[in-house]
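re: ur question from yesterday

yeah so i grabbed the chain u mentioned. its 335 aa long if i counted rite. heres the sequnce exactly as i have it in my notes:
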Amino acid sequence: MDSVIAAAARAGDPSAFSELVERHRHELQVHCYRMLGSVDDAEDAVQETLLRAWRSRASFEGRSTFRAWLYRIATNASFDLLERHPRPRLRPPAATTDGPPSRAAEVRWLQPYPDGMLDLVAPSEHEPEAAVVDKETIELAFLVALQHLPPRQRAVLLLRDVVGWSAPETARLLDLTLPAVKSALQRARTTMRAQLPPHRLHWASPSTPSAEERALLQRFIEANERADMEALASLLREDAWQSMPPGSVWFAGRPAMLELWASAMAGPTAHGDWRLLPTAANRQPAAANYLRRPGDTVFLPSNLDVLRIRDNRIAEILTFGAEVFPAFGLPASLE
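ran it thru and got these structure tokens back, copy pasting raw so excuse formatting
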């Protein structure tokens, strides 16, 4: 049946073509997101991928799978987007992994990916090869590390270590020699080891936030709504830190984070009343922050906090602006 649909798609049947590509759309978007670090850019790349695929549909001759053919187009679309909109040059890995956590703050284009969209990527009757989106390959720390790789090294690492393709398959897709693929993968793995947090292997976990992580998130929400600095302090690791893409500023250590929060939530500098909703991004627990300023009658979107939890304490918070709320299906206001 698939061969009949593919033949109809090559012949220009729009419905047959749509049926084929829709099976892979969500997986392709996650691939482009890993390549680009931005949900908005990933959607643009996928749209370009589908347009290119339609225009060149007759070139699909079945020597590879339709999925592999689309991955090739999507990867090239990502390369082209990066060439049109080059990213700022990121600094090389620090000499020590115990230094200031400036790496995430540098990736100003970073955006969180809603778990609700990640859940759409799963093997099915029509897409048995679709890769389950494991937490360790979609966490924000992994995305930040990826952005330090040159685009072609990034693609090789993703296709080999995440999508699970062989070296010959990757070489064919990227028009590289087999030695070039092996060399690029070795260099990419070295950079990733230097960029990922020192305890990376110890905080990989299942594909969704655990019950313990959800419970800690709820305590975080309740403490924020009460403006309870003591309770918030008990949830943070001493070496925790917070960054706010696209700003290039970060707050390193529990005292610095508590000072920041106290100025917004308590005393004469308080911005108003806060209400938080639980959600999830990049397979990590997250909280959507709403603020009701003095004189307002409703709570309006303020920011999204994505938490990384280690040893049942918050180790890292990446805070994004309210512009990401629509992608998460969050309400525009709260009563």
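noticed a couple things. DSSP finds 14 helices and six strands in the chain. also The radius of gyration is 22 Å.
anyway ttyl
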